[in-house]
Amino acid sequence: MRRAGTSRANRTTRSRLVAAVLALLTTLLVASCGLRLETPAPPALVPDEIEQVRQRTVADAVAVQTLADQAAATLTEGPLLAALSTVAEASAAHLALLGGVYDPGTTPTPQASGPPTASPGAPTASTAPAVTPQDVVALLVKASAGARSDASAVADGRLARILCSVAVSRALLAEGLAAAAGVAPPDVPDSAFVVPVAVPAGLTSTDVAALVQSEDALGLAWEITAARAQGDPRASEAARALEHRSRGELWARAADLDGTALDPRRSSYDLPPVLTASASEPAAVLAELAALEGDLAVDYVSLVAAVDAGSRSELVDAALDATREQARLGGAPGNTPGLPERS
């Protein structure tokens, strides 16, 4: 004879099994019908300081690209249209380099952004004032200064290196666009390179020794070029040689290398043959000097990632100085100067 308690226990167990099976069937049925039970929406991601810097630089890239496209819309051909197109293309490259526009809840992906949608009450295309190249130049200068400031202050060294390249690119784009528009060159604030009195925190003695030798060797290259030049170019080439030699000296003093056995400067260097051969074409010499200035810019941009936050401004300015000279000599820094892996 079964006990009454055992029967009740069995019935209870069977009831629980039936309830579990019904719940499972209900879940499968809901899923097969394309429905889902309501769940709370995931909380919005709050960007940290580094992400805020990235998004700010991305927003500037979109704004510059949009304004350049608007300014180019009224043109059909000519150097000004080409310069505006270059600005828009560079800004698109910066956008991709930075990871694109952030879409909340998804991974940032590179994507193009069209002109912003007009807000209620905003001027329409027919009533808004026409965008001029000077407007684009002004925005480039402002965006370059913002990227320079963030490159110096952001905690992430890798992002700082990217921002340095973007800041340099925007400054050069502003200067190139102003020249194409026939307006006065823009004043890029706080961009004159001055070697710091003390070595920026984060640089090793090996890093500084490499800078000392690079600056000094490039000074010798310019001295040889100046010695063979005639007329007006000779004075400017001699001045550039003096700049590089002086910077090498100042870096050596900052690192206490001057006058020591660790001073890497030498009386001569193994320079490219085109600079030392007497029969070299002037154009080939300038192309080689442009390449050397570009290499120096790569050095400075690379070191930005190693320097502590708050101590990078001089390196950004040094990268701009070398890249500007590279461009003046006919070199092609590209949309991301100082980043050889992106060229």
Plain-language structure description:
This protein is mostly helical and about 350 residues long. Helix content is about 60%, strand content about 0%. The N terminus is likely disordered.
What is the N-to-C order of secondary-structure elements (H for helix, E for strand)?
Answer: HHHHHHHHHH
* Global Rg: 30 Å
Largest sheet, strands/sense/barrel: none
| Tally of alpha and pi helices | 10
What's the rounded overall pLDDT mean? 85
| Strand content bin | under 5%
Percent helix range: 55-70%
The dominant shape is globular
Structural class: mainly alpha
Q: Give me the count of strands.
A: 0
Enumerate the spans where pLDDT stays under 50 for 5 or more consecutive residues: 1-6, 107-122
Distance between the termini: 89 Å
Chart the SSEs and their pairings.
Blueprint: H1 4-32, H2 49-72, H3 79-97, H4 133-153, H5 157-181, H6 205-228, H7 232-254, H8 273-276, H9 282-304, H10 313-328
Helix pairs in contact: 2-3, 2-4, 3-5, 4-5, 5-9, 5-10, 6-7, 6-9, 9-10
Question: Outline of this structure?
Answer:
With 343 residues, the chain is mainly alpha-helical. The chain is built from ten helices and no strands. Residues 1-6 and 107-122 have low confidence and may be disordered.
Question: Could you name the key traits of this structure?
Answer:
343 residues, mainly alpha
